[in-house]
Structures are given as structure tokens and as C-alpha cells.
Amino acid sequence: MPDATPNTMIKLVRETVLPDLPADFSTEADFFEAGLDSMGVMQLVMYLEERFGKKVEPTELSRDNFRSGSTLATLVNGKTA
Amino acid sequence: MSSTAPAIPQFPISGTDGFVVALDYLARSADGRGLDALSEIQVSGQPDETRLRWLVAELPRRMPLLHATLCKNGWFGVPYWECSGDAVAVPIEFHRVSNVTGPETSVIESISTLRRLRMQGRERSSLGPPHIRFDVVRTSDQTWFILMNWSHLLLDGTGVELLFKHMNELWHDPQAVSPQQPVVRNDKPWWKLFQESESCGKHLMNLGVEPFVSVSQGKLVSGRRCCLWETFSKEETAKIKLTLGKIGGDMMRTFFYAGLAARCHQIVFQSRGHSDFSYAVTMPVQQRPKDGAGRTAIFQNHMSMFFFILKDADLADLATTSKVLMKQHMEHLKLKRHLSFNSLQLLTRRMPGKTMLDMVRLAQRGEIASCYHAYTGSFGEGMTSFCGGDILNAIHMPTVNAPPGSGLFVSECQDQLTVTVSYLDTCLSEAETEMMRERWRSDLLGE
């Protein structure tokens, strides 16, 4: 499994749901302001399980957890399946 | 004051529009009236009639689709909007309720009376303008309403919110540039679309293997279009968020409310003596294109759709239902059924409405779904004022056709949640809608 760092999370989001994410998108910048929506979040849930083995629980499906590269990395590293 | 947009001689419909055209046909064939809906905003202060008239007159000058007619060449041609001639005015009327003084000459008993009238839509002999109309109602010395009647052929609920938002932008800045409707290109040959449609097509055929129910029991019926809705106070809405928070995070709301729609219908079927049935619930997901300047498209329907099938056991409580829906949703995503559905829509938009519906109903044993459902999120995201006043509340009142004959819709405005059931009075009784209301209160507030 690759390391779940804030930058790898940004890379994942860019590759899967937000292809137009700027190259200098910071690890604290808000994915929702950049266009992430609930459909995109559900796609990310799928990719987090596929690529990082992280099974996201319903209670973890919050805006706060999916807000930025940093928060996503914390989510994945906090409770890796 | 206007920045007149160039006329669009021919503008193809989107994939989603194709299905809406079929549903509009279904509505018209039942009672001659199209699939029209009503949306309203309650505003503080007093309406400014002169400026509102200017604003509404400005819209068709800037947005040619507002005075376009839906046309089609040949049996399998892609339907298109044709804009010709001068802008056709958008109707606007001003009223006041009988116990309020004001300059308006039209006096109505109550806003509910007007809502009931407008909910019925208009008889259509052509698919031309007007596609929207407005009513402004002074309801007290401190409040007024704006009601927009709109045809689903040209707009969806999110588009209506964007139009209201743009109207407010023009109110503050008459020179503001209006979004240009982007054409959704499709260069794929039909056989490619056919291949891509396979996954979704198979899924839809499988839905009909075990018969599911709707309140119209698969019959094509007409009836009076009705709505029952409840807006929860800010305190109640906060309590609802706490209740739902125990089941899952805030990104699961779309599953909570789709689950609520199914559970509210389940109680009606149970009261009719049915049990052990399947329920087919739809969940639309927005996918709006943007124009060249990055502004989101206002017009046309832009959705992909997920179809879920639920058994009685899946509907034991809201937590169970939401989790089953989420599991099915993940399965759909893995199989890329949303993309397959987009291809299916592009493929079938050429079909005459009747043919498309005949095919769907044949596969689903007369039905389309157990109910309609949509969660539109926060009304006009970020919008707090409208044309000079603060927004107090805003809701959509969609209309439905039969089958299925009913739908449950959820939206939010200024931290107030609204749940709406739309139905035909020939499909659901008032007592049954009250039953639904009791269930949503019980599920959301734990009462």
C-alpha cells in the first residue's frame, strides 16, 4: 500500500474526481471549494479502499474528514483497515 | 441595461432531457398539462413592483432558451430547442392577500389558494414559451413571496435555484453578464453508446424481475396535483442533524433522505395491506456543465440516476435503510453504472417519448419506480437575500405523474429543513399523506 500523506491524497483526488485541481493546491486547501461534491466523496470512498485498504465507516463520512489533503491523510492513517 | 445574448437557432436536448420529455408526454397524455413545478421564496420587507417587472422582462432578452420551442425532425432525430423571432415576455402578476393593504389590484384569499391553483400547471398544446411564469404576493406588511412556475422540460430544481440566484445578481448589478448555456457535445456513434449502456440496461431489466410497487399500481392515471410539506424550525433542524449524526456523517444525507422516501412509502403500502414487496427508489445526482467563463449552466436537466431496490427487511429503520442504500451505491460506482446511465440517456434521447416509456414500463411491469425522490441540498447555496429582502424560507413543490403517482423531496434553506410529499389525489389520500408525515417526524425527530 502507498503511504497516505497529504500530497498523495491530493494526487488521488486529482486523478479520480477533480482533474482540474491546480498543481500548487496546498495540503490545507478545501476540496469542496474546488468542486468536490457528495458524488465525488463516494467515489473517493471507493478509491481509498482500493488503493489504501481503508474502509470508510458511515460515521466517518463527514465533510470535515474529506475537506483537504491533510484531513484525508489523517482519516486514512487514523484507522487503517 | 441588457447584454443581449445571440439567438441560438437550434440547441439539442441533454441526455436527461430525453427522459423528462417522455415524462412530460406521460403527464400531458393523462390530463393535457405538462410536467410543471412550483418553487417559491419567502422574503422580508416589501416587493418593488417596478424593478421586479424590469428584472423579469430582462430574462428572455438575455436567455434565448426562455422563448424557445421544443422541436424534433423525424422519428429518431435528436429533439432540439429552436429559438426564433423576438423574445417572448415572461408573465408576472402581483397580488396581495385579503387582509393586507397594498397597491395590488389582484386580491387573493391566501397564498395556499394561489399555490393550489399554480400547482396544476397549464394546459399545453405546444412545447413553446412561456416556460416560466412568476407571481409576487404581498402576505403582510413585512413579508412577500415570489412563486415561480416552471416547466421541467427546460429546467430542473437546481437550475431554478441558479436562475433565482442570477436574478438577484441582476437586481444588484444590471450590467452583470448572464451565463451562456453550454452545449453538451456528444460525438460517440450509437453503437458505442449502446455498448456503454449495457451495464445500466441490465441492471434496470433486473429491477423488474421481482415486481416493485408504486401508489398508482402501475396505472396511467390523472388527478389533482397536490403537495404536503413541513418546514422544520432551526431548533428542530439542529435536532434532526443530531439524530442523523448518530447513523452517519453529513455526507450521507443523500442516503438518509432516499431512505426516508422509501420508508414513508412503505407505511402507506403496509396500511393498504401489502407486505413483502420490493421498492425501487431513484436517486438523481447532479452533473452540471459550465460555460466558457466557468459559470454553471442554468437550463436543461443534468442528472445521472441511481436505481436502488429495497426489500421490506431493508426498511426496518432509517439507519438500516441508509446503510443498505450506501452499500448498493458503492456497488453501482464500482460498476460505473452512473456513466453507463449517461450513455443510455444519450442513446434514448432520440426515441419518441411514448416509445421510451413503453419500453421502460414493459421491463418494469407497468411501473417506472416506487416513488420519485430528490434531495436538493441548501436552496441557492450561499444565497441569503433576494431582490431587496432577506430570504426567510424557500422550497420546491415538484409535481409528479402516474406511475408512480408520488414523490418525496427534501431541501434546506437558512438552516431549516423542508420535507415535501408531492402526489396525485387519485393515488394517495390525505390520510395517507398524514401517515407519511408522522413517519418522517418519527424518523427525523425521534418522536
Short key terms for the protein model shown above:
heterodimer, A: 81 residues, Non-ribosomal Peptide Synthetase Peptidyl Carrier Protein, Chain A, 3 helices, B: 447 residues, seven-stranded mixed β-sheet, 11 helices
Give a topology summary:
The complex is a heterodimer of chains A (81) and B (447).
Chain A: H1 6-16, H2 38-52, H3 69-78
Helix pairs in contact in A: 1-3
Chain B: E1 10-12, H1 15-31, E2 36-44, H2 49-62, E3 69-71, E4 80-82, E5 92-97, E6 106-108, H3 111-119, E7 132-138, E8 143-151, H4 157-172, H5 190-207, E9 225-231, H6 234-245, H7 253-271, E10 278-286, E11 303-311, H8 318-334, H9 337-348, H10 353-363, E12 372-378, E13 385-386, E14 389-397, E15 406-413, E16 416-424, H11 430-445
Parallel strand pairs in B: 5-6, 5-7, 12-15
Antiparallel strand pairs in B: 1-4, 2-8, 2-14, 3-4, 7-8, 9-16, 10-11, 13-14, 15-16
Helix pairs in contact in B: 1-9, 1-10, 5-9, 7-8, 7-11
Please mark out the parts of chain A with pLDDT under 50 across 5 or more consecutive residues, or reply none: none
What structural category arises from helix and sheet content of chain B?
alpha+beta
Distance between the termini of chain A: 11 Å
Largest interface: A-B, 16 and 19 residues
